[in-house]
Amino acid sequence: MKTFKPVILAALTALAAGFFPAAAEAVEHDLIFGGYVLTIKNHSTRGALLTYRLWLTPPAGGPDRFTPLYPRPFTWGFEVKGGKLNHPEEAWEAVLALKLKYELEFLPGTGFFATLGGGGSYSEADYHAVPTNYSFVGRVGLGWRLDHFLVQTVFEHRSNGGIRKPNRGVDLLEVGAGFRF
Fold it and tell me: How far is it, in rounded angstroms, from Cα 15 to Cα 54?
């Protein structure tokens, strides 16, 4: 299984890259480096994270009104997150999620954003609150953007949806910084 993990992460990344149109003016990319700062129901989780987001933005000259594909002022996106835990055990984990972003620009190139998303995850970690390696994920985030630089915090809840008991869920708080291109 350990050699299979890089294959899974590579497949998820390839899926994310091909999920939306690849026209250069129709997408934005976020790359965030971060880590867990607090785990509410599992006080000992620590590790590093890498998050990649692909945002579907209106092409130049595209609609300047609300449409299902470009729901202004919201933006649809897709997220792939990989993490390497170092405590309570050495483990890998990955998240694949559909995202919705609201961005409020105060000055040109500066603003706040909020994200909401859901999807699935796989974790090697032995979270006693979630007795399965696969789980459903809900993510809510707040961030600040200065030109291409991003700072964010994200709350994440994982649960197996009652597939197997006990299912108390795991709540995680992440902090990260990165850039948009």
Answer: 11
Within 8 A by CB and 6+ apart from 59, the residues are 23, 25, 26
For 96-134, what is each residue's pLDDT tens digit?
999 999 988 888 889 999 999 999 999 998 777 677 889
Cβ atoms of 146 and 178 closer than 8 Å: no
Q: Is the peptide bond preceding residue 88 cis, with omega within 30 degrees of 0? A: yes
CATH number of residue 52's parent domain: 2.40.160.20
The residues, any chain, with a CB within 8 Å of residue 129's CB and separated by 6 or more, are 41, 42, 166, 167, 168, 169, 170
- What is 141-160 written as a DSSP string? EEEEEETTEEEEEEEEEEE-
Domain with 77, as residue range(s), is 4-180
Domain total in the chain? 1
List the one residue out of 109, 178, 167, 108 whose CA is nearest residue 141: 178
